[in-house]
Design goal:
The chain has 136 residues and is α+β, with helices and mostly antiparallel strands. 33% of the residues lie in helices and 42% in strands. It has a single domain (3-135), classed as Nuclear Transport Factor 2, Chain: A.
Amino acid sequence: MSAAETSRLVESYYRVFNTGDREAFLALLSEDVVHGINQGEEQRGRGLFRAFLARMDHCYREEIRDVAVMVNHDGSRAAAEFVVHGTYLNTDEGLPEARGQRYVLPAGAFFSIRDGKIASIRNYYNLPDWTRQVAG
């Protein structure tokens, strides 16, 4: 893929995420996608990503805004900086109690691209900042 095509793929990843169409979202990923969860484990496979999304959708309502995408020269890797605007709906295991708290959280992600699909994504954000926002 060209750098421009990769940029469009990553932009689509966030645009489709915001629509809530999880099947269209998952279609952007390779079957063996590697998902690096912030301050957590690494999961492999679209099935595990689907389960992760189901948990996230149960616990959080999020919209990704202000996305800036950066791509290397051959389109094989990309990074994105963005802001997550969310509502904490249901308590996620090991985290503070959910009471409908709103949060705004800067975040970033690193991607690798293979055969026109996202082959890996690793997300990063400041968990202590999020915790402060929802605990207050």
